[in-house]
Design goal:
338 residues; alpha/beta; Nucleotidyltransferase, domain 5; five-stranded mixed β-sheet; 18% strand; iron
């Protein structure tokens, strides 16, 4: 790994983040969250892009200060080009271009999904990075997919959701339970106090390694409507058990396909990435398969699971070493395949 110093900028959704990386060691990783979306039960794109405009300069300044790095020491600037909310991405892209031009350093575009996966190669993400080829269950509010990672930039999506992402299912079910947004971490916390076998919800029958999460959401909704008619306090009286049962079902759906892929492709190196990889039940299920199936498992540090600029900086560092720079005419893109 070279000693180049790279500034990474992430603005794909509602977190404005900036990080400094030297080699594959993170010197700073700063994020500004947008609490305003809680009021609306989900991210409002217009409000998100406005908040990015307010946050981006202070966040970048703070990341430089924390890393004790002067602007003129930066070797290149990496930024999230997509996928994500277009307005949010435009703020990060425009800022990265302007700063790269003013400092006369190369610009490096980064795919947000690749970054989640390659976060595993940050120095302190794992005790050891995964060995190629490995499977990575990439699971967040916007994406759920199983990726076969053959090399840093040779990735193949072998299974993905045909409707809702797993994180989206947690949030929508949380709304049914009248929980705040984002509901995933709240469900995880409440599930620890509940019985995961208290209630049974539908699991989809999907071909190959694909997922579907709209069915469990509908199953929960109909079940709740039926029970609340009988007892208006049903949710309040059974909240912990409901959360535990929902969480168990979603994690079982995720793990069944991952286990199938690992077995059929004969891969023992298995990783998780994305916001839902912070879920305690998913981490426990991975640990169980380490013991039961002999997997070598890779679970990233919490700070590298949610949207963060450290993972963007990591990919930019890998591209910098390969001389893969981006033309200044580049534009952000809401849809961006692996």
């Amino acid at each position: 790994m070279s000693d180049s110093i790279i500034l990474g900028i992430e603005s794909s959704c509602d977190d404005t983040s900036a990080a400094i990386i030297k080699g594959n060691c993170i010197l700073s990783n700063i994020a500004a969250n947008q609490a305003i979306h809680k009021e609306y039960g989900g991210v409002v794109p217009e409000l998100a892009s406005r908040a990015h405009q307010q946050n981006i300069i202070p966040v970048v300044e703070k990341s430089l200060t924390k890393a004790n790095i002067q602007q003129n020491a930066i070797s290149a600037i990496g930024f999230t080009r997509g996928p994500g909310l277009l307005g949010s991405l435009l703020v990060g892209t425009s800022f990265a271009k302007s700063l790269a031009m003013s400092l006369n350093v190369p610009l490096i575009e980064v795919n947000h999904l690749q970054a989640h996966i390659l976060a595993h190669f940050i120095d302190d993400a794992n005790p050891m990075p995964p060995k190629f080829p490995f499977l990575c269950l990439t699971v967040s509010g916007g994406h759920t997919m199983i990726v076969l990672v053959k090399d840093y930039f040779d990735m193949e999506i072998i299974g993905k959701t045909i409707d809702d992402a797993a994180g989206e299912a947690f949030d929508k079910i949380g709304k049914i339970f009248d929980l705040d947004y984002p509901a995933g971490p709240i469900i995880d916390r409440l599930a620890k106090e509940g019985n995961p076998n208290a209630f049974t919800f539908n699991k989809p029958r999907m071909e190959n390694y694909d997922y579907s999460f709209s069915g469990i959401k509908t199953s929960v909704l109909y079940f709740i409507q039926k029970e609340v008619k009988k007892n208006p306090d049903f949710i309040k009286e059974n909240l912990n058990d409901l959360c535990a049962s929902v969480q168990r079902t979603i994690i079982e759906i995720l793990m069944a396909k991952l286990e199938k892929a690992a077995q059929e492709l004969n891969v023992k190196e298995v990783a998780i990435a994305g916001g839902v990889s912070a879920n305690s039940a998913l981490r426990t299920a991975m640990q169980d398969n380490h013991e039961k199936l002999g997997w070598n498992i890779y679970i990233p540090k919490f700070e590298y699971t949610t949207d963060n600029a450290a993972m963007i900086a990591m990919v930019a560092q890998l591209k910098f070493e390969r001389g893969e720079f981006t033309d200044m005419r580049i534009s952000a893109t809401a849809k961006y395949d692996l």
